[in-house]
Amino acid sequence: MNEKLSFVNPTANSPWGTYLSQVDRVVPYLGPLARWVETLKRPKRALIVDVPIEMDNGTIAHFEGYRVQHNMSRGPGKGGVRFHPDVTLEEVMALSAWMTIKTAAVNLPYGGAKGGIRVDPKKLSLQELEKVTRRYTSEIGIIIGPHTDIPAPDVNTNAQIMAWMMDTYSMNVGGTATGVVTGKPLHLGGSLGRVKATGRGVFVTGREAARRLGMDLRGARIAVQGFGNVGSVAAELFVEAGAKIVAVQDHTGTIVNTNGLDLTKLVPISRTDGVVGFKAGGDIVPNEDFWDVACDILIPAALEGQVTAERAKKTTAKLVLEGANGPTVPEADDILAERGVLVVPDVICNAGGVTVSYFEWVQDFSSFFWDEDEINVRLDRIMMNALNQIWDTADKHKIPLRTATYAVACERILMARQERGLYP
Ligand code: GLU
Questions:
Q1: Least confident stretch, 9-13, 213-217, 248-252, 375-379
Q2: Fewest CB atoms less than 10 Å from the CB: which of 119, 159, 245, 293?
Q3: Whole-angstrom Cα distance, residue 8 to residue 5?
Q4: Tens-digit pLDDT profile for residues 115-124
Q5: 145 and 267 fall within a common domain
Q6: Any idea where the Glutamate/phenylalanine/leucine/valine/L-tryptophan dehydrogenase C-terminal domain is (predicted)?
Q7: From the alpha carbon of 155, which atom of ligand 1 is closest?
Q8: Is this model's pTM higher than 0.85 or not?
Q9: Based on the domain organization, do 279 and 324 belong to the same domain?
Q10: Judging by DSSP bridges, how do beta strands 297-300 and 319-321 pair with one another?
């Protein structure tokens, strides 16, 4: 953690700094609600926890964990938990704030929260992973709950980890509290469609953006950075619509095939060996070359800060779909806008995941489960309604989609803040 960290003084170019500058850009469109904007510039609550576990070799290891509740004006905190060796408090603050904007942008009755553990899960045995998850859950148990703050999967976390979190919380409170986390396995109160929901939302918003740009998806060339749950699912849906995936990058490297990569082979291989395991299906190139590959659509679906000013200058994409949270730094945003590249921002583009998380939570409370068609129809409707409203706002003020999304979302959040009033 940066020693000089304070809520209002971010490290330069950090995710929190990016978020604060995104909030600054929306202030002129908030009218009298601007009076409350400071509330968005600091998290409501941030918890740092020590996560000690006994490793398989008998040593004791300590990991640092976080849960940040950025805003709860509109409902309980909501947001994933990330396991990554580079996680910091400042990063989790930004991720929690983006959840606040995201849940408001699609009008879900939630605030925003996020969690993380500074750990490389690839270096842990399954047993160690379970211990880390359970101890972390127990430590943050003082602030999470089905009506206060509901975690979910994010980078390097999955349904099994959610099952352990649900079980640990339930053991501590007595009973079975399925509604405390979303993204659970199907037979433990999980929802159909949740695993693919984020990628599906990227596709739905991307298809609409392409339509408005007059871009034909048939034959469109797509470059995807990050080939996990978000990037690979979105890529498959775009291929079904006739597009071709010309470049994919993941933590193992970058593979390029200008004729289109065969996803029926690439996806299963990438799960075990990473994308470079599919050498037979394309050329392995240096990672920086990914940004030079000629494409029509760019999907950053990995980590924050990937679309830098330099990369924004060279991409040939006409459309950027932010599958990741915070992939574009503000300077790059300006460059893309000047170059006429349309950016569908993270806070709407990847909102499909939290939307189906909301469906899961509703189903858990009603103990009545919907079929997958019903989930997908409702997901598509919520995403399209939100996107259309954002687009109208962008057209009205002649502002980028990101600022328009913040305008729609911040109005909802700050209106709730104002109506609730300050306590005491
Ligand atoms: N981690 C996902 C996100 O960044 C989903 C969060 C959730 O389902 O609560 O939106």
A1: 9-13
A2: 159
A3: 8
A4: 999 999 999 9
A5: no
A6: 191-421
A7: 1
A8: yes
A9: yes
A10: parallel
Cβ < 6 Å from ligand 1: which residues?
A: 78-80, 152, 154, 182, 325, 350, 353-354, 357
Distance (Å) from CA 269 to ligand 1 centroid: 26
Expressed as residue numbers, the domain containing 314 is 195-340
Q: How far is the CA of 286 from the centre of ligand 1 (A)?
A: 31
* Residue 9 pLDDT grade (very low, low, confident, very high; cuts 50, 70, 90): confident
Enumerate the β-bridge partners of residue 48. Answer: 66
Q: Looking at 142, 177, 212, which one is the last position of a domain?
A: 177
- For a mutational test of ligand 1's pocket, the pick from 354, 360, 362, 383, i.e. the residue with the most ligand atoms closer than 8 A to its C-beta, is 354
Q: Total structural domains in the chain?
A: 2
Q: Is 114 a catalytic residue?
A: yes
Q: Is 385 marked as binding a ligand?
A: no
Give the model's pLDDT for residue 138.
98
229 assigned binding-site residue = yes
CATH code of the domain containing 60: 3.40.50.10860
Flag whether 406 is in a domain: no
112: CA distance to ligand 1 center in Å? 10
Strand order in the sheet with 319-321: 283-285, 253-256, 244-250, 221-225, 297-300, 319-321, 342-344
Question: Per residue in 35-49, pLDDT tens?
Answer: 999 999 999 999 999
Annotated binding-site residue? 102: yes
Domain edge (last residue) among 340, 366, 394: 340
Does 78 count as an annotated binding residue?
yes
User: Alpha carbon of 283 to those of 55, 263, 276, 290, 291: distances in Å?
Assistant: 40, 15, 9, 11, 15
d(CA 156, CA 24): 31
Q: Looking at the domain assignment, is residue 21 inside a domain?
A: no
